Structures are given as structure tokens and as C-alpha cells.
Description:
The protein is mainly alpha-helical. The protein folds into 2 domains: about 1-90; about 100-330, no CATH class. The protein is about 80% helix and about 0% strand. Helix 1 (about 1-25) packs antiparallel against helix 2 and helix 11 packs antiparallel against helix 15.
Amino acid sequence: xxxxxxxxxxxxxxxxxxxxxxxxxxxxxxxxxxxxxxxxxxxxxxxxxxxxxxxxxxxxxxxxxxxxxxxxxxxxxxxxxxxxxxxxxxxxxxxxxxxxxxxxxxxxxxxxxxxxxxxxxxxxxxxxxxxxxxxxxxxxxxxxxxxxxxxxxxxxxxxxxxxxxxxxxxxxxxxxxxxxxxxxxxxxxxxxxxxxxxxxxxxxxxxxxxxxxxxxxxxxxxxxxxxxxxxxxxxxxxxxxxxxxxxxxxxxxxxxxxxxxxxxxxxxxxxxxxxxxxxxxxxxxxxxxxxxxxxxxxxxxxxxxxxxxxxxxxxxxxxxxxxxxxxxxxx
Length: 331
């Protein structure tokens, strides 16, 4: 435990120093640099409080994951500082300016591109942004496959031990599911499609916000959690005696074609934002890179993700329940 605490303290020290330097070099005066760097203390303090609870709880396994996460974030911050630290640029600045009109104009020009109307934007500009997501999309898809399989295998292997699944309990589970199958008919009344759409869109935005403060790592962690949940549900279906493939085809695939595609694209775009921040680009400042990367994310979000989430919400509320009822006798 002593070695673990030492490593955790060292990782936090590197994290705070690297993040303070990265933030403070964006300022042009000592006062503003100190003020900006002080904002590092608050999130790290919350992190330390959570880790203190884990120390008193005695859960060393989770603390090792915390060390890995903090070390990874510190390494990304060091990489960010090395990528954008240019002495001549810093010494050449004299006045801090925040030109909202210029920022808005740059955002509009990047979002619109050379398109004259919506149809031309979809035909020419959006495909250019999607082409840049090819590599992060492959990473996200591969990660989803691995996490889904691992989650499925973990549930199939470990849950029977924890729950002591006996034939009687499995029969009770099946009876409970069959008795409550009629609740699917009122799903649209209890959870309207607009509410589901709003929830999914808000979650996607949260992915981005968490990814911004962690170079994509926290957003990717939430994505992994959602995919693990899908694999776990299919594993639970297997334990109860249902066909995982049929359960996936009837209960997830109809709306998942749209929803999972939207989530994959949004996560890939979020991952690209983090990658762009730590990629050396000497001709652009950190603020310019962040603005352009966020604009590309908004392009994908508005042009593809939101329409797909809207379709997915309608399918999930009005079509998927009926398919589940039709497929249930064959599960």
C-alpha cells in the first residue's frame, strides 16, 4: 500500500505540474498565468478525495487503475506542452485578446466550408470530415468488438457464481420476463421518443465534454462502459437460456443500426479532437486547433449524429418492442 500511495502521489505531481505549465503558457502576464494554473487544483482535489475513499476502503485494484489513468493523462499533457511550446511565439505576444466575433466567424467558415446550400454541404463538405475519421473510427470499432466480447465472456463466466443460478431460478427469471412482456406496449407512453432522443443527444455531448478535459480518454471510457453493458445484456440472455444472436437481432440491431452508428461516429470525432490537440502543428496555435477540431465534431454531430439518433429513438420506441414480442417465442 505504501508503494501504491507513493506512485499515486508522484503521478499527481507530474499531472499538476504539466497541466499548470500547459495552461499558464497560454497567458501573457504573471497574474493571468497564476490564475489559470490555479484552476488545476480544484479538479485534482476532487480526484484526491475520491482516491482517499478508495484507500480507506482498501480497494487496491481500483487504485492501480487510477495510477494508470493519471499517468496516461499526465503523459498526454506533457505531449501537449511539447507540441505547442514555442518560445518565439510566447515572447512575441503582448496582449491577451478574446475576439468573439473572430471566433464565431472562424467557426462559421469552417462549419460551412465552400458549400452554398445544405445539399452541397452534405455532398461535398461532410464527406471530407468523415474521411478524416477513418482511422479513429477503426480504433473505436475495434475497441467496441473487443470490449463487447470480453463483457459477454465475463458475465457468462462469473455471474453464475455470484448469483448461484439454479434451474429453478432460471425458470423464475423466464416467467418474470414473460409476465412483463406486455409492458412493452406502453413503452411509448412512459418514455416518449423525443425524451429518448434528448437523453441520447445529451449523453453524446457529455462524451465530448469529458473528452475535452482528458484528451478523449474519459469520453472513451464512457463509450467502453456502454458497449460493455450491451455485451453484458447478451451474456445475461445466454445465461437465462435465450439465444444471444436472436436477442441482439430483435432487441438491439433494429435501432442499433442507427444509434450505434451515431455513437461510433461521435466517439471517433471526439477521439480526433484529443489527438489533434497533442499533434504538433507549428503553424497553428492551441486555440486555433481546438476551435477547428470542435467545429469538425459539430459538423458530424449536426449533420449525421442528430438525424441518426432521431431515427433510432423512433425505431426503439415503436418498432423494436414489437420485434421483441414477435421473436420472444423463438428465443
